[in-house]
Specification:
- By secondary structure, this protein is an all-beta fold.
- The chain has a single domain, classed as SH3 type barrels.
- Helices cover 0% and strands 41% of the residues.
- The protein has no helices and four strands.
- The protein has a four-stranded antiparallel barrel with strand order 1-2-3-4.
């Protein structure tokens, strides 16, 4: 399992667990498929920001 900090590890359609903005205090994960990768830099310390196919936006914490 990867921690989601490297953009190269994230692919469209991948099943991931993300932390949504409103869940940052609790760290609750939301699972879904990557629809769009929103972070442009190759790495990010808090996880790569993605949009799920549900339209929710969060930072990748794990790749399922």
């Amino acid at each position: 399992m990867t921690d989601g900090q490297k953009r190269a590890d994230i692919k469209y359609g991948l099943d991931v667990g993300v932390v949504l903005k409103e869940d940052q205090s609790t760290g609750r994960l939301t699972y879904g498929k990557v629809q769009k990768i929103l972070t442009n830099s190759p790495t990010h310390p808090h996880g790569i920001k993605v949009r799920l196919n549900t339209g929710e936006v969060g930072r990748v914490k794990e790749i399922v």
